[in-house]
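Postdoc handover notes: sequence design on the structure in folder B. Input tokens:
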């Protein structure tokens, strides 16, 4: 019995923790993985007890009967790989039963991941050393925080590799487009593609920007996307927060253990989809990584995209540490959030009224005034070169476009709750 066996168990716990995040939508399979993690955690004290820094004499038998070695095949991104762990003898059947239940499901997850992530794996293979060098030098710290806040399941090194590879492809595409436009031009009349006219060097200087524009745009889009996604998720969480805190306050009034509050909310179905993901992070920090509740709350507070949720996590951590009543804290927090929510709804109502007035002016009054103006101009002999039928069609198209713009804007501004 040595350090290698202990290391195998710890590495297997780490792999199971990663699998736990992959199965975030399957609660039954998550429960089986948590059971395996618990069994492996329970075996660690016995492994430490049996760890021999100085080899014992053969006269004394080591208590190896408490532990049993299990060899099995576990699903992996490349198919299956051999695994070996030591667990308590009494837990061996439960461990293998859990593995049997999740094995086929994990195979499907890894198979779909393998098919969908070829581009990502190719990016990592080509640019991993470069991205790793940038990350080690301290670059992209804000990008890493944005990735965590946006719940994008990429390591920073992998995402930077993907960004660099995509930028390289954009540079190649820009170069091809530049060469094509250098020698050819487009026309609205047949033949639609013609040889470029004018000086070669003049065309060169006019179109050289394409080579730099496409890769710069690609790099910028990859860089700002996580931050933009994090802001969107933060707004969704803020809209759910008043109702989540009211629910938490009701649960906390039963004097339940604090970490159980998050489990109840996280398992409440799709009622709070965005807040639920943040609560699952707290649960995983406690159950998988072994953090205490206050440390898990403060850690998640730094990685959430919602200011309100960050304040809630820090407030809960302080309340738990100081021993104050969680019910009182959550009641006051619920009142504050509900008041802000009502103010936001009132602001949205006023905004909708303002845009209703603008809509009436643009879509109802303006077309009538325009039609009357054009009609009077045509009667007076002040034609504008366009027939009344064409003017009618143009006005109808403009009205349709304005309607689409207003509907999209109101849909974007409308709160979920």
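Designed sequence:
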């Amino acid at each position: 019995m040595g350090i290698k066996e202990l290391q195998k168990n710890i590495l297997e716990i780490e792999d199971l923790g990663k699998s736990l995040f992959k199965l975030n939508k399957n609660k039954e399979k998550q429960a089986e993985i948590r059971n395996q993690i618990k069994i492996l955690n329970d075996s660690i004290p016995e492994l430490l007890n049996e760890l021999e820094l100085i080899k014992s004499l053969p006269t004394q038998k080591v208590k190896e009967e408490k532990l049993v070695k299990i060899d099995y095949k576990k699903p992996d991104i490349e198919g299956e790989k051999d695994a070996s762990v030591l667990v308590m003898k009494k837990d061996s059947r439960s461990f293998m039963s859990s593995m049997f239940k999740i094995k086929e499901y994990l195979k499907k997850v890894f198979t779909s991941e393998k098919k969908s992530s070829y581009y990502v794996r190719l990016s990592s293979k080509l640019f991993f050393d470069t991205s790793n060098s940038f990350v080690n030098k301290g670059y992209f710290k804000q990008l890493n925080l944005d990735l965590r806040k946006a719940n994008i399941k990429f390591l920073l090194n992998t995402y930077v590799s993907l960004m660099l590879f995509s930028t390289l492809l954009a540079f190649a595409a820009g170069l091809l487009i530049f060469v094509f436009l250098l020698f050819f031009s487009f026309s609205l009349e047949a033949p639609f593609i013609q040889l470029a006219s004018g000086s070669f060097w003049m065309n060169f200087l006019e179109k050289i920007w394409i080579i730099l524009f496409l890769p710069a745009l690609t790099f910028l889009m990859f860089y700002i996307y996580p931050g933009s996604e994090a802001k969107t998720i933060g707004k969704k969480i803020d809209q759910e927060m008043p109702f989540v805190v009211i629910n938490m306050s009701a649960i906390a009034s039963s004097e339940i253990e604090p970490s159980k509050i998050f489990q109840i909310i996280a398992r409440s179905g799709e009622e709070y989809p965005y807040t639920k993901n943040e609560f699952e992070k707290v649960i995983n920090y406690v159950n998988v990584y072994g953090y205490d509740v206050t440390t898990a709350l403060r850690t998640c507070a730094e990685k959430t995209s919602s200011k309100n949720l960050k304040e809630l996590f820090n407030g809960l951590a302080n309340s738990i540490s100081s021993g104050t009543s969680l019910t009182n804290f959550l009641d006051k927090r619920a009142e504050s959030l509900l008041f802000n929510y009502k103010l936001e709804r009132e602001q949205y109502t006023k905004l909708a009224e303002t845009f209703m007035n603008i809509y009436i002016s643009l879509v109802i009054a303006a077309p009538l005034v325009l039609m009357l103006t054009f009609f009077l101009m045509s009667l007076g002999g002040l034609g504008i070169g366009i027939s009344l039928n064409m003017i009618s069609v143009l006005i109808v198209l403009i009205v349709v476009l304005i309607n689409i713009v207003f509907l999209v804007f109101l849909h974007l501004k409308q709160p979920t709750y």
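Context for whoever picks this up: Residues 59-64 have pLDDT under 50 and may be disordered. Don't rerun without checking with the PI first.
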